[in-house]
């Protein structure tokens, strides 16, 4: 019987952190308070401008840490007036 060689667990991605498009949309909308539809994420994947994503086989997945990083990058600094450049 041939021996199966398994990859080192330290080299595997943290699959617990990966979200599908619907989960990423809910995370952005609810947790990060930035309403974002599944359609918007799909458009961003095609045209650019959205969070980075990965393919796991044929499925699209987003890392929670990268979604959070993307959401935080869209928040301006604190301002005292709407006439300030943010």
Topology of this structure?
Blueprint: E1 18-19, H1 21-31, H2 38-47, E2 54-56, E3 59-63, H3 64-73
Antiparallel strand pairs: 1-3, 2-3
How is this structure best summarized?
By secondary structure, the protein is of the alpha+beta class. The chain is built from three helices and three strands. The chain has a domain of about 60 residues.
Beta-strand content estimate: 5-15%
- Silhouette: elongated
Largest sheet: 3 strands, antiparallel
> N-to-C terminal Cα separation, in Å?
65 Å
Strand order of the largest sheet: 1-3-2
Give the beta-strand count. Answer: 3
Rounded Rg: 18 Å
Characterization of this structure:
This protein is of the alpha+beta class and 86 residues long. The chain has a domain at 15-73. Helices cover 36% and strands 12% of the residues. It is built from three helices and three strands, in the order βααββα. The protein has helices spanning 21-31, 38-47, 64-73; strands spanning 18-19, 54-56, 59-63. Strands 1-3-2 form a three-stranded antiparallel beta sheet. The longest helix has 11 residues, at 21-31. It is elongated and about 70 Å long. The N and C termini lie far apart (65 Å).
């Amino acid at each position: 019987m041939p021996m199966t060689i398994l990859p080192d667990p330290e080299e595997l991605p943290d699959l617990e952190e990966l979200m599908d498009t619907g989960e990423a949309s809910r995370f952005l909308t609810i947790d990060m308070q930035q309403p974002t539809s599944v359609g918007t994420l799909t458009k961003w994947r095609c045209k650019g401008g959205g969070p980075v994503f990965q393919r796991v086989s044929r499925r699209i997945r987003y890392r929670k840490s990268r979604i959070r990083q993307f959401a935080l990058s869209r928040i301006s600094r604190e301002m005292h007036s709407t006439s300030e450049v943010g």
